[in-house]
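Write out this protein's structure.
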Amino acid sequence: MEHFVIGTAFQDIYDFFITSGQKTLTLDFTETHHLVDLLTNGLRFFSFCAEDTSILSSLLQTSNLFVGGFGLAKFVPFVGTKIPNYMLQANVDFLGKFTGNQPQQRVITEVEIDPALIKDGDLFLTRRMDGMDTFYMVSSGSGAAHVAVAMRDEKGDL
């Protein structure tokens, strides 16, 4: 069985092949931002090949990136709002393996910023080691999964 992920920074196409032989994929990128990224950075290809016997093992290992920290129930350990240590470590290891960048744990957990220092266009970058953010970082080549841009209105309020 083979599993392919092909895409740009904005769109991913998933395809599974159970049988061997020649296959044809049809890719349709029509929106301008998709085309700009395609022409600038090309397509990103991920291929996951496995025999039937190793699919379950791979699935269980991959599930460590995602299972836990979903915020579904705060009293059930594997679906709480806090990312468990095993999940955090699995995501850090995944980033290290596929990007060469293994994030270090932050000592500082809260940062106060004087709003007077924030200017239009300042960026706030975030990431959460919850599997999805990690996948976004690997597939886009970024060290962050979410970006917020600071802007002040006509009154000067953020």
